[in-house]
Design goal:
The complex is a heterotetramer, with two copies of chain A (140 residues) and two copies of chain B (386 residues).
Chain A: H1 5-12, E1 27-34, E2 39-48, E3 51-60, H2 63-76, H3 83-86, H4 89-96, H5 103-124
Antiparallel strand pairs in A: 1-2, 2-3
Chain B: E1 5-6, H1 17-29, H2 39-59, E2 66-69, H3 72-84, E3 93-97, H4 102-113, E4 117-121, H5 131-137, E5 142-148, H6 160-170, E6 174-177, H7 189-192, E7 196-200, E8 211-215, H8 241-253, H9 256-275, E9 280-282, E10 293-298, H10 303-309, E11 313-314, H11 330-334, H12 339-343, E12 346-349, H13 356-376
Helix pairs in contact in B: 1-8, 2-8, 3-4, 9-13
The chains are: A alpha+beta (140), B alpha/beta (386).
């Protein structure tokens, strides 16, 4: 297996790996896993004023899994919660050159973030929609 | 990037400088075709025959029993196909095990598709094949039993003397894949009564692309390749003098009595440190292993990530010829390991040029990586720990 | 003993020092298994793939069509057995010629014993196989036509473009044994429409024990050896990096446009002097020969004595893999030579390192020996002169 | 094919190759050949006073053939004509390490020498017998 430099960098030093202190307010979390694909991931998002202030993850899986979780957490940080509705793991896959046979693992991260989203929706009592019905956020 | 450490000597070894010197001298000074009858041809032939004698002497067998091939893969194919494809029985039967090298397993499966009956005998949780299981599998039409001496993933040593004895009792020839054992463990092919034995040079600090099949006197075999009378008609093609000379030199340099204990000491030093890592599990019967291999699983850690985390230590999951494929090891699977545990397995193997400093440093890096990955996966479900 | 002169470059060649340098560097610096996924393994893999690309570039074919083997003997076996043994036709048919290398002829005969129908097409007195004769031999169930490019005994070049065209017309794949032609004659495998092509490194100042089979995209073939996914599953076994690197270097160094004329000039110089010997007879169409080979018979002279008399000139009767056997050449026999004339044939072949002085001296020694042996046999009956 | 040093020496310089001048008196000659074995040989013996004064040969064949003819010619020279009756080519074969598959060629030399012997007998009108009914002449 060959790994790109971006995978290498994030796998070696996943800056957003970890947990948010239990006492922090406004934290939602969600897990996704697939035993057959050998992947488990958990995201924690700290949300305040409709903005994702911090995103943290834990992951079990291959280097692409770890790097993708880190990429997604970074991407989410600083974005409004609506970003969760627009998130497309294929963007992470492209940025990290994840081989096609591993895309299934990344979909489990969508699952985990969907759980986060539903938790936020449940808290707020409404649905999170993409702000512009499909336009992608520019990468920051 | 930290300093590279090579602990994958079961996949292949670096060339011993003395082997390189012998090969270079041959390439420079002995360029003719060993089948040519002119003087330079006869010089090349002499080099080939001297190498054959050196190898035979190391193994304690007559020189005429050594047939040169392109490696153990070809030797295994020649042994199995050569015995079974042209057998007098209409449906000959092959007995082998679930934990053989792919070149035996795939050949056995190809033979199955061509009408050969095959029994794949299981191993136990320690990777040991019980001779009684093999004995039970033998039928009147069994044409060959094929069992590896040392498993390339776990290093587990099968009880070839006992297996050879029971094959002799039942009148069935025994083929032994000794790719991982020659030069590291004592072999007594003629004393044990082995009929065919596969060898290769590159696991013993010799060149890649050359090996041999020991063919006991009187054992009949059909060739795989046709054309030319080389190697008693069993293996045509221009003999690669420098490769054969390299193999001869490598085999002469290897001495199980001296190298075995040295390798075992290094391996034990490495193993001690790896076993100290929490959640570490040794794969393969601890007391029945070849001196150069240790195979460990680490619960709660993904194998691919572990290998990537310690990427400056060259190690292996499964065997090298499978390391491109994501499937878990068939050997660890046969031993009953869960996919997760099998997936987290590292095979580390030491060689003649491995140092104590290297194994210490490698163990340190593995320990660090396991800890880091476990932290990264804190809170993961139980199945991740196998 | 007089100075040794090597004129047996069709049997094998000495290593080009630049090839030796590339191999030595690889053996010293690139020891890992190209199938290993760790960094040293990937470096070895890169060396293999670079060599594959160099070879493919020289041949003007996609790199993915090159399958490495242990030499042209194996390539020929893989081409023939791989196409015919698992063919959909119940009794597939093979068309080849009487003058192929033993590795094709013996494989064809082995296939015959396994139920394949084989037609051996004759050549004419000049050693040329008429494309029409091949066309006539093709049947609806013909699965392969196999014709060598350059004959290893006479150097005669077969008309592969015409043969490929007629095979294309009839929808039958063509295998070409190009062991003697690669690097000496231009090859246009894809333009001609060749399906399979056998090559070897050691006839071109590369190492012995490595070769390749060109397998046109879309051409299906069953492997001979099983185990491991190397070489698209067509050829398992640990890749011999240094051997492949050596072949890559050798092929890159060989340039038919430059080497062909140089070899031909030397060969012509040699031939002129040999033809001046009374009773000399050139074997093979004079105008249709590869640049490096000349094959001459000398009437009234026993071949074994002639070769012994010029023993410090390394030459060959027949091909090297037959030079141990006393039977006369099957190629010269197919061309209609009497046993006596065929027996007195010498094959002399020049290479990159042959000098004008050497060919002059060799011709002088042959002329002297022929004269001496003729005097020795003065009064012998007519049959001795063929 | 490997050749011993004795074959090499005799093949390279066969001292008795050649012919006896046609005018020499008392010369008999004999030929033997076998096309299948690729061998032809002719011996000429100059006999005076019951002794072989000179022996010469011509040969077509392999190096062993040439060397054996030379060996036999040398052996005969200086011996009484009875030596022809005792001659055993296996002695030449042993001296020259002729491989067994080539023994047939040497038997053609016995044929040639038998012709010489019969010519001598015809000339003298009696049979040549071994002088001691089997004892071999010492090699000189
Ligand atoms: C047990 C065993 N058998 C066979 C082989 C194949 O040997 P080679 O690489 O020489 O084809 C290997 C190693 O690759 C091996 O470990
Ligand atoms: C025409 C031809 N084909 C095949 C071969 C066999 O090649 P290798 O020696 O690489 O097996 C040779 C030479 O030996 C040859 O001349």
């Amino acid at each position: 297996m060959e790994y790109g430099s971006e995978v290498l960098r994030r796998f070696d030093a996943p800056l957003r790996a970890g947990e948010i202190e239990p006492e922090a307010p406004g934290v939602v979390s969600g897990e996704g896993d697939d035993r057959a694909l050998n992947v488990w991931v958990r995201f924690q998002l700290e949300v305040a004023d409709g903005v994702i202030r911090r995103a943290r993850f834990r992951a079990f899986g291959c280097p692409h899994t770890v790097a993708a979780a880190d990429w997604l957490a970074e991407w989410l940080e600083g974005r409004p919660v609506q970003a969760l509705a627009e998130l497309d793991v294929r963007r992470a896959a492209a940025a990290l050159e994840v081989p096609p046979e591993k895309l299934g693992k990344l979909l489990r991260m969508e699952d985990a973030l969907a759980v986060c989203r539903r938790a936020l929706e449940a808290r707020n009592g409404d649905r999170l929609e993409s702000q512009d019905g499909g336009r992608r956020w520019p990468c920051h | 990037m930290s300093e590279e450490i090579y602990l994958d000597n079961a996949a292949t070894t670096s060339l011993d400088p003395r082997v390189l010197a012998a090969m270079t001298e041959c390439l420079e000074r002995n360029p003719a075709n060993p089948s040519s009858t002119h003087a330079p041809g006869r010089r090349a032939r002499r080099a080939v025959e001297e190498a054959r004698e050196r190898i035979a002497a190391r193994l304690g067998v007559p020189a005429g029993t050594i047939v040169f091939t392109s490696g153990a893969t070809e030797s295994n194919n020649l042994a199995l196909q050569g015995t079974l494809l042209h057998h007098a029985e209409r449906t000959p039967h092959l007995v082998t095990t679930r934990i053989e090298h792919k070149s035996v397993l795939d050949t056995a499966r190809a033979l199955e598709r061509r009408g050969v009956a095959v029994t794949f005998v299981e191993c136990d949780a320690d990777g040991v094949v019980a001779p009684e299981r093999l004995a039970e599998a033998i039928r009147p039409e069994t044409a060959l039993v094929s069992v590896m001496h040392v498993n390339n993933e776990t290093g587990v040593v099968q009880d070839i003397p006992a297996i050879a004895a029971l094959c002799r009792d039942r009148g069935v020839p025994l083929h032994v894949d000794a790719a991982q054992s020659v030069g590291k463990l004592p072999l007594d092919l003629e004393g044990w009564g082995v009929a065919l034995c596969s060898m290769t040079a590159h696991k013993l600090h010799g060149p890649k692309g050359v090996g041999a099949l020991y063919v006991r006197e009187g054992m009949r075999l059909a060739p795989l390749l046709h054309g030319g009378e080389q190697e008693r008609g069993l293996r045509p093609g221009t003999l690669a003098t420098h490769q054969i000379v390299g193999m001869g030199q490598a085999y002469e340099l290897a001495d199980p009595a001296r190298d075995g204990p040295r390798l075992a000491a290094l391996r034990d030093r490495l193993e001690r440190q790896l076993r100290a890592i929490p959640g570490a599990r040794l794969n393969g019967a601890p007391e029945r292993r070849a001196p150069h291999i240790v195979n460990m699983s680490f619960s709660g850690v993904d194998g691919e990530s572990l290998r990537f985390a310690v990427r400056d230590v060259a190690v292996s999951s499964g065997s090298a010829c499978m390391s491109d494929s994501p499937e878990a090891s068939h050997v660890l699977g046969a031993m009953g390991l869960s996919d997760a545990l099998a997936g987290s397995a590292l095979r580390l193997s030491v060689g003649r040029f491995t140092t104590e400093r290297e194994v210490d440093e490698a163990a340190r890096r593995v320990a660090e990586a396991v800890e880091r990955l476990r932290t990264l996966a804190a809170g993961a479900p139980a199945w991740c720990s196998g």
